């Protein structure tokens, strides 16, 4: 199903806010600094239904509300207070994957970014599928960015927070670690050069707060 939405021109502040969803936008091959749908929205309708149980406005706003409330972070964060061997192994794998010291990962005591990154992209997808309006999309993103700025410190901590939440949730680190490493260090790999991926230096271009 094609859409008839007019092209949205973004301000620099809006682009900065989209950086909070950069990890998953890059991972899914989408433009990091854009909210305009390329092609039709069939795959997003299917994806929201299968992965999120979102098929209409009510379900979209309920899911987005839970993400904004940091529901997963509230469950996962207490685990970081007294990490067991399994969690320490996750931290070690994240440190190795990002090419940073283990202590940098251990300093992060919240998985809030796991909720916020997903909030940004699910807000965008819900808009693309016609479940929420453009204004509502930006409202969710705005509130999410505001919350991230209150809880978080900087982009590097934000990336680690996302990875901790993703791994605790049960997803494989390998699926997304390369994208996270490039964004974390603002440095392209040979693969990203081949595919001409743009805006991998957004953590340098845009401030976290």
What does this structure look like?
- This protein has about 210 residues and is mainly alpha-helical.
- It has helices at about 10-20, 20-25, 40-50, 55-70, 70-80, 85-100, 100-105, 110-130, 135-150, 155-170, 175-185, 190-195, 200-205.
- Helix 8 packs antiparallel against helix 9, helix 8 (about 110-130) crosses helix 10 and helix 10 (about 155-170) runs antiparallel to helix 11.
- The chain starts with 11 loop residues before the first helix and ends with a helix.
Describe the secondary-structure layout.
Blueprint: H1 12-18, H2 22-27, H3 42-52, H4 57-68, H5 71-81, H6 85-98, H7 102-106, H8 112-128, H9 134-151, H10 155-169, H11 177-185, H12 190-194, H13 202-205
Helix pairs in contact: 4-8, 5-8, 6-10, 8-9, 8-10, 10-11
């Amino acid at each position: 199903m094609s859409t008839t939405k007019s092209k949205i021109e973004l301000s620099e502040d809006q682009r900065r806010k989209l950086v909070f969803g950069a990890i998953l936008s890059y991972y899914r091959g989408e433009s990091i600094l854009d909210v305009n749908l390329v092609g039709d929205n069939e795959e997003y309708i299917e994806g929201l239904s299968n992965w999120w149980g979102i098929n209409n406005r009510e379900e979209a706003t309920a899911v987005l509300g839970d993400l904004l409330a940091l529901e997963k972070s509230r469950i996962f964060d207490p685990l970081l207070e007294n990490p067991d061997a399994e969690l320490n192994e996750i931290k070690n794998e994240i440190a190795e994957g990002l090419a940073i010291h283990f202590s940098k990962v251990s300093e992060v005591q919240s998985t809030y970014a796991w909720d916020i990154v997903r909030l940004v992209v699910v807000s965008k997808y819900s808009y693309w599928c016609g479940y929420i309006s453009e204004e509502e999309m930006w409202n969710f993103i705005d509130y999410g960015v505001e919350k991230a700025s209150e809880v978080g410190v900087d982009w590097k901590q934000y990336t680690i927070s996302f990875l901790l939440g993703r791994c605790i949730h049960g997803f494989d680190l390998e699926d997304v670690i390369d994208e996270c490493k490039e964004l974390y260090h603002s440095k392209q790999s040979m693969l990203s050069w081949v595919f001409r991926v743009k805006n991998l230096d957004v953590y340098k271009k845009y401030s976290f707060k």
